[in-house]
Amino acid sequence: MLFANLSILHAYMLKQLGQFCEHPYWRLYSIVIAFLLSIMFAFPAYDSMLPGAQKVKNHQHLEEQFEYPLQNPDASPETHQAKMVFRLTVPALANISGVRNPKVYILLQHLLGLGFFYFFLLLAERLFEDKVSALLLLLSIVAIYLGKSFFWDIQGWFDGLAFFFLLLSMYTKSPPVQWLCLSIAFWTDERAILASGLIWCWWKIQYYETEKLSFKKLIWPDRITLTFVIAWGAYLALRFWLGHTYGMQTPMGDSGAFGFQRWEVIVPALFTALEGTWLLFVPLLLGIKINRSYWLLAAIALGFLAVVIPALTVADMTRSLTYCFPIFLIAAYFLKDQVDIQDGQTYLLIIAIICWLFPNFTVISVLSWMHPIFPGIFVDHQHM
Predict the structure, then answer these.
(1) Which residue intervals of the chain are DSSP H helices?
(2) Contact, 295 vs 214, CB < 8 A?
(3) Whole-structure pTM value
(4) Which of 131, 130, 47 is closest to 371 using CA atoms?
(5) Which of 53-57, 58-62, 172-176 has the least mean pLDDT?
(6) Is the peptide bond before 77 cis (omega within 30 degrees of 0)?
(7) What local confidence, expressed as pLDDT, does residue 255 receive?
């Protein structure tokens, strides 16, 4: 009886989603719903943005960096501010435009969050060739930190800008635009350069489709490899020049709070960053095994570990782990090839339900709850 009822509920949910996707403005409605769900289940500290509110601690540093972007901050090496030396996208924009209020760029990040949902939906729809599957994947990422980071971040970390431009580099097929998007992401947060390895894998898969990706094809200097090598090389060369010319440097070692020092929160961090989307790794691994693309597996594993290992050595583990999000779309590619549309929808529905069943927790120094709108709207954030 229970399984019969679940089967009826499953069929009803997919039918309703199918009808929703038939609406001519379904993408617009999906983006609005995704935004509302995000702030409802992880209510941002909007009270700290109101006129007369105590200034958010990180905003003072941002204002200083906006004024003098090519200067080492006067901050202790273990602090977040000390690590923002080369995160110059927003400071450069503020310095050039003359608009130096951090709240303006937090609003910009909100808008880019809507843009992220839009391009993610388009990319998933292009991948699956099915609207319902694309919507279910979007609903899954809205339920985890990735979909909430654009709005939850009132401090001004600006990971959302990096996420948006990394995704855009996965969407556009133009090498110059890809290079520009990657460069903006790299200068927003250096963790983006680690995540770009997964995007390189993504484009190799798209370029060679279902062919076996040999080692030669992976490293062959085609337009994909050249675009990424130029982006990586330009970033590293300019970073070296800035360090040599202006003495800019990011603190490393124990003084920079690096190292596996928080073993008790590593497992919670690994789960809370991805939640139900961990299930996407099953079709990914099965698809690679079926195609015998072991060099591709090695490349994806290397790209994934390049994000995960450094993420587990810093305080803001959840934020750092979220940079691995390109692997979701890589895994979705293999899911599409292994099952028919209906079975794929069922699998994605299960992933979405798991993601929404778990409360929103994040590991940023400590394991903490991202308050939903109730009681979040009553929480005083003036200490931020």
Answers:
(1) 2-21, 26-41, 57-67, 89-97, 102-128, 131-142, 145-152, 159-171, 175-188, 191-208, 215-219, 223-246, 263-274, 281-291, 294-311, 317-321, 326-338, 341-357, 373-376
(2) yes
(3) 0.95
(4) 47
(5) 53-57
(6) no
(7) 47
120, exposed or middle or buried, with CB in 10 Å at 0-12, 13-18, 19+?
Answer: buried
**In whole angstroms, what separates CA 277 from the centre of its chain?**
13
Number of other residues whose CB lies within 10 A of the CB of residue 205: 20
Sequence-distant (≥ 6) Cβ neighbours of residue 209 within 8 angstroms: none
pLDDT of residue 260: 61
Rounded to whole angstroms, the Cα distance separating 176 from 184 reads 12
pLDDT in the model for residue 164: 98
Per-residue pLDDT of 162-197, as tens digits, reads 999 999 999 999 999 999 999 999 999 999 999 999
Position 191, amino acid:
R
Residue 23: partners with Cβ closer than 8 Å, 6 or more residues away: 29
**Closest of 252, 248, 227, 230 to residue 239, by C-alpha:** 248
**Cβ(253)–Cβ(78) below 8 Å:** no
* DSSP string computed for 287-349: HHHHHT-HHHHHHHHHHHHHHHHHHTTSSBHHHHHGGGTHHHHHHHHHHHHHS-HHHHHHHHH
**Residues sharing a CB contact under 8 Å with residue 351, sequence separation 6 or more, in sequence order:** 136, 137, 140, 276, 277, 279, 280
Find where tokens 């934020």 sit: 319
